[in-house]
Amino acid sequence: MKPKVIFIHGMFQNPKSWDAWVTYFDFLGYEVHAPAWPLHEGAPADLRANIPRGLGSLNLERVYHHYRDIVRASVEQPVVIGHSLGGLVAQLLLAEGLVRAAVGIASVAPNKMLALDWGFLRNSASITNPFAGDEPYEMTPELFHKNFANTLSREESDLAWDAYAVHESRQVLRDILGEQGEIDMERPHNPLLLIGAEKDEIIPASLVRRNAHAYQDARSHHEYREFTGRGHFICGEPGWEEVATSVSNWLEGHLSAVRS
């Protein structure tokens, strides 16, 4: 029997970003769930028009505990698949021994791992700007195209922004540099797959690769794969099916490799 799969969205998105993946994995016979972060439930357009009260103070600890509670409520350990900051949450759940396997796509890295990449530095500084306080970061069509959907035409990007983009808490990203973003990379863990996107302007593929290779336990499976020509919107841009198929094939091959 196939395990439950829980999808974890990243910043500036909500569960709608996983709609196609949910349909795909449901077709493959998985029990599929895509729960929202706190304050991220609803239609993206509504969330943009009416920013949820308290969004600016949402932090990484609250997001992580939200998913930890969901995972712990499962009868059997699920698989988690996370995008961007959701990929970091997936790694944190894996490190705590709560999931059967984890996949991080264009994942934020733990342990204060940074990249000397202009896109990464530009985006990180803009979002975490301490002078902005708890004011939510508003994702505009221009910023979405420049950073998320840079491999799409502007028309395609604007359609994706309208369908999927939401405004976001700055504090969640700030917190990755604190204790909440730390993982013991020497401990044994269940199977982990990290996927990088060659054209990613937010999380460069080189950082995802370094994240994957930082895991030290030789008995535990950790793997890196990279997709060429893809941006940070890798899970939604044309060709997402190739990524989803790669993930499903990896799961089929490694679910039996769970450590006892």
From TrEMBL:
Transmembrane segments: none
UniProt keyword Iron, yes or no: no
Pfam family, one: Abhydrolase_6
Occurrences of domain AB hydrolase-1 (ranges): 5-236
Keyword list, A-Z: Hydrolase
GO MF term set: hydrolase activity
Protein's UniProt keywords contain Hydrolase: yes
UniProt-recorded name of the protein: Alpha/beta hydrolase
Lineage of origin: Bacteria, Pseudomonadati, Verrucomicrobiota, Verrucomicrobiia, Verrucomicrobiales
